[in-house]
Design a protein that fits this description.
Elements: E1 6-14, E2 22-29, E3 34-39, H1 41-55, H2 76-94
Antiparallel strand pairs: 1-2, 2-3
């Protein structure tokens, strides 16, 4: 049996580039080690697109919708809403009954 994987997004950060963007720090916790992977919102959309095309199924939970008129960089409330929704999205994939999502 595979070890239990705990997925969470406990924190976010803003990049220090000329065009700032939000990074979501994904924490992957295994029994003996924890990994933290910073990912952009677009990385989640790429994951979603890839999984949907490979499984041919609707996802257990959809990722949050992209907002074209507001940015998470200057909006702490939007950043927190998106962080929570992305965490729920990853959690739903990780615990899905259908093994193809995992």
């Amino acid at each position: 049996m595979a070890p239990t994987l705990e997925i969470s997004i406990p924190t976010t950060q803003t990049s220090n580039t000329t065009k700032p963007y939000t990074l979501y720090n994904i924490s992957l916790r295994l029994p003996l080690r924890t990994y933290v992977l910073p990912k952009r919102y677009s990385d989640f959309l790429t994951l979603h697109s890839t999984l949907t095309s490979q499984t041919g199924l609707a996802p257990p939970v959809s990722p949050p919708v992209k907002s074209w008129f507001t940015r998470t960089v200057n909006n702490a409330q939007l950043t927190e809403q998106r962080r929570a929704a992305l965490e729920a999205y990853l959690g739903a994939i990780n615990t899905a009954e259908d093994w193809r999502w995992r």
